Amino acid sequence: MYLLHILSGRMLYKGMLMEITGSNILPLLLGSVGIIVLYKLLQRMKQRAYIQDTVVVITGASSGLGKECAKLFHSVGARLVLCGRDRQKLEELVQELTGGADGKRKTHTPNVVTFDLRDVDAMADRAEEIVGCFGQVDILINNAGISHRGTILDTDVSVDRDVMNINYFGPIALTKAILPSMVQRKSGHIVTISSIQGKIAIPFRSAYGASKHATQAFFDCLRAEVEQFGILVTVISPGYIRTNLSVNAVTGDGSKYGVMDKNTAEGWDPQDVAKAILTAVSRKKKDVVLAGMMPTLAVYLRTLLPCAFFPIMAARARKERKVKKN
User: Fold this and answer.
1) Which residues are catalytic?
2) In the Cβ-directed half-sphere of 40, how many Cα atoms lie within 13 Å?
3) What are the transmembrane regions (predicted)?
């Protein structure tokens, strides 16, 4: 009886297989797969066409997400200007990029410009140096930033000011300094790496969240104002990424946090985020959230049902405070 059952099942499977192969279903399936493959190929070609030979400036390029963006944009033919504080790390990255070239694709040797975003008054000179590398800037990616961990009561206002200089005043000063050259050419694309925390506020991240909220508002305003000049503005809001952002975060007294948060350790691979950024930029997206389902839902909850959002954040604050005490 058991053997008969098995044989019947096999005959049924063969019959279904013959029905599929003998009808129009198989060609339809193969055609669908072919369309998907062709679509992805065309998207890659479109990305390469948009980025090829364009001058792309990346701040915070020596590590983390900035470094992955540098690798990816270099691979598709961008003329890079890599910016950061550590010239040695930037030059090592240049050697890595040029040494890894396979000769099959057209690539360009990147330029390096060093500066500290805290030095807001120096941004005009640094912008002039950046523009001078290739004579223009096609895409500016404001990526550099710093995070914060600490209670509002225990955070000195000097820390708030420092985080705002790095995450907000520095990038907007650089953007303002480069913007006139884009307006003159009536062409350009400004990309800012914000955060999901620029849309929702999380306890014990006050300085960071405030700087990202300000960033979101500024570049939303900028997008509307420069549309008449043909200049694009893209704001990318990622969730947690597996970088050293939490390790390098500052605490309430300005000291280094030095801890890899669990959420950060379990976050997105920076290579995947870099790919998503390249896709968003090549498709000229205006505002992109790169986060999981729960953070994305939280954004809508904060907007549509704040009376439910606030208690959730208060409960999160109590939970984190309890964990730290233990």
Assistant:
1) 208
2) 5
3) 20-42
Architecture of domain 54-291: 3-Layer(aba) Sandwich (3.40)
The secondary structure of residue 109, as a DSSP letter, is P
Domain positions in the chain = 54-291, 295-325
What is the distance between the alpha carbons of residues 199 and 214, in angstroms, rounded to a whole number?
A: 10
150 bridge partner residues: 205
Please name the residue ranges forming H helices in 52-153: 64-75, 87-99, 123-134
163 neighbors 206 (Cβ within 8 angstroms): no
Task: Dihedral sign for Cα 190, 193, 196, 197, please.
Answer: negative
User: What's the CA gap between 270 and 66, in Å, rounded?
Assistant: 9
Cβ proximity of 123 and 168 under 8 Å: no
pLDDT of res. 6: 45
Local mean pLDDT, 10-residue blocks, the chain (326 residues): 47 52 59 61 64 97 97 96 97 92 80 97 97 97 96 97 97 98 97 97 96 98 98 97 94 94 92 97 96 93 95 94 76
Q: Helix, strand, or coil here: 167? A: helix
The predicted pLDDT at position 116 comes to 96
State the pLDDT at residue 323.
78
| DSSP code, position 112 | E
CB 76 within 8 A of CB 104: no
**Tokens standing for residue 324:** 């730290």
In this structure, the dihedral spanned by the alpha carbons of residues 300, 305, 306 and 311, taken in order and rounded to 10 degrees, is -100
Long-range contacts, stretch 317-324, CB < 8 angstroms, 24+ apart: 317/203, 317/204, 320/203, 320/204
Residue 102 in tokens: 């396979």
Q: What is the pLDDT of residue 14?
A: 57
The pair of three-digit structure tokens given for residue 209, joined into one six-digit string: 């969240």
